[in-house]
Amino acid sequence: MMEGCFVINGIEKKCTFEPDAMLLQVLRDGGHSEVKRGCDTGECGACAVVLNGELVNSCKVFAASVVGAEIVTVQGLGTVHRPHVIQQAFVDAGAVQCGFCTPGMILATYSLLSQNPDPSDQEIRKALDGNKCRCSGYVKIFDAVHLAAERMRDHG
Ligand code: FES
Ligand code: FES
Question: Which label site among 21, 37, 75, 120 has the fewest CB atoms less than 10 Å from its CB?
């Protein structure tokens, strides 16, 4: 076992983990069940987090390689009582069905809109390419991204 600190949603946490543990496992063991395990092979985006400002699939990142990193999970953006504008847009657009893909979709949207406040459909498709949804057919998710972008532009 080894020990390392991570800054998770702004709070420094000391974690103990196997040298070959993936970041996904460490986050979930630390109580971050909002980070979902889907494929475990880097293909579905359910486990996405923002790691030092970049969207990554945490099932493909060795925890030992990112000790000290700043990690944002969907919980770091907002809560049920104080949702982030992107979370609210997903709800308002009806883009949350079973909800399994939603944390990853929201973080991918957050990452996209941080760089591109007014994305086209094609840019949204590219940004969400690594995030799979089995329920929605993606149309409402695209609507949610446009709605979030519009609201974020309106609120500066
Ligand atoms: S669980 Fe990590 S990409 Fe699917
Ligand atoms: S809402 Fe169920 S997988 Fe996307």
Answer: 120
Lateral strand order in the sheet of 11-17 = 11-17, 2-8, 70-72, 48-51, 54-57
Q: Is 105 in the pocket of ligand 2 (CB under 6 A)?
A: no
Using DSSP's 3-state secondary structure scheme, residue 6 falls into: strand
- Which residues have C-beta within 8 Å of that of residue 37, sequence separation ≥ 6? 24, 28, 46, 47, 59
CB of 91 sitting under 6 A from ligand 2: no
CA distance 49 to 37: 12
Structure tokens, 92: 């308002």
Q: Please write the tens of the pLDDT for every residue from 1-11.
A: 999 999 999 99
Gyration radius from the chain CA atoms: 15
Query: Is 0.70 topped by the overall pTM?
Result: yes
- How far is CA 53 from its chain centroid? 11
Q: State how far the Cα of 140 lies from the Cα of 149, in Å rounded to an integer.
A: 14
